[in-house]
Amino acid sequence: MVSASTDNLIKVWDPTTGEQFSSIQCEPMENFLAVLSPDGDLVVTCSRRGKFLVFKMMTGETVYESEPTTRFYYSLDYSPDGKYIAVGSNEGIVYLYDTETYQLIGSGEGKPNLKYFIMITCHTMSIRGLTFSNDSKLLFTGSEDKNVKVWEIGSFPDVVDSFYGHLSFVTDIAVSPNPEVFASASSDHTVKIWELSERRCIQTLADHISHVWSANFNYDGTRLLSVSDDESMNFYLAKPC
């Protein structure tokens, strides 16, 4: 398990014992997003101050460090097949990196240079949430423009579909183990569950009284957890209403 903080530390933990494996000191830049690679070897982190970094999990060795930019990064995910890293920005753009195109700088003593291979102009405002499908074939994005969009990895920049219904920012996206179902959290105080093939909302969960920042399904997709600014975590049965 990996945690990110505005104290500029990335920490890696054993979730069964609570033991800390490693602590990675970053320069001050609000590293508030971090994910592990599917094989558990790498930690990827990005920040609101326009930097994107890859570290070795156990040693903290820097594998890749991007040049600083003026953009902010608000969302991050690693595809389950390990091939892609997606980063969502305040420009409404997803930067999609191919992890198989590492190129050594100089005579092999330099660090690999991870080149992004496509920029996807997804939304008109910041992308607050994004996630890959479990088979890595689709990318789901949610934005401050209140919309959710679904993209097919093999056919960029074509969008599979757009989903509308939230009254405020979309803050997070969660994909169920059932590939037909996903959920979106929003600052409109709700979580919506959607059916992909039917292009419809099948359930709206409206029990929170403040912004909902996160949502996630359990291992078999029968339960959904939501976390809100109202200081509550809610568990739901994920079924059509």
TrEMBL record:
It holds the Pfam family ANAPC4_WD40. Keywords: Repeat, WD repeat. WD repeats lie at residues 1-23, 120-153, 163-204. Residues 36-107 form the Anaphase-promoting complex subunit 4-like WD40 domain. SMART domains: WD40 (SM00320). One of its GO terms (cellular component) is Cdc73/Paf1 complex. This is WD repeat-containing protein 61. It comes from Trichinella pseudospiralis.
